[in-house]
Structure prediction request, 171 residues.
Amino acid sequence: MFITKKSTTFILAFTVIFANFLFSNSLSLEDNGDSTWNVNYDSDSPIGGFQFGIDGADITDASGGAAGDAGFMISSSATTVLGFSLTGDTIPAGEGVLIVLEVEGNAGDACIEGVILSDAAGEAIDQMVEDCVNIVSGGDDCESGIYDCAGVCDGDAVEDCAGECNGSAVV
Prediction:
């Protein structure tokens, strides 16, 4: 089989489209190293509202980011953040910093959970969170920077075919 310029272009375009579909509608956490964390987003739809929880650390404040820029009403407790617009404004589709959290606790123990994203009409935006998104702080003492699914530096835990860390499901 000969690979032509047209087939290479098609394969590249298909890969980019598939990767974009695969990784859309997600939130992730980034430790800024100063007791604040960015909640980053990647969404293929405008965001009209959001809610999520943080387990393993306490939220002391939530503000800024694209939610602040869009004029969202932002409310937070020690474990939950909620944001929406009273005027129907949305956060444009794309990626960036959704909101900045001030937190107390060990970043390595924290994870994001219970994510709800909605569009301007209040309809759910499909998204998925597998287990939780562990935060690895910049001052980490894991030299390799490689963590298994249980968050252990250089660990050997793996996800089974059902997506459970150290699970026993088989095909």
Summary: Residues 5-22 form the longest helix (18 residues).
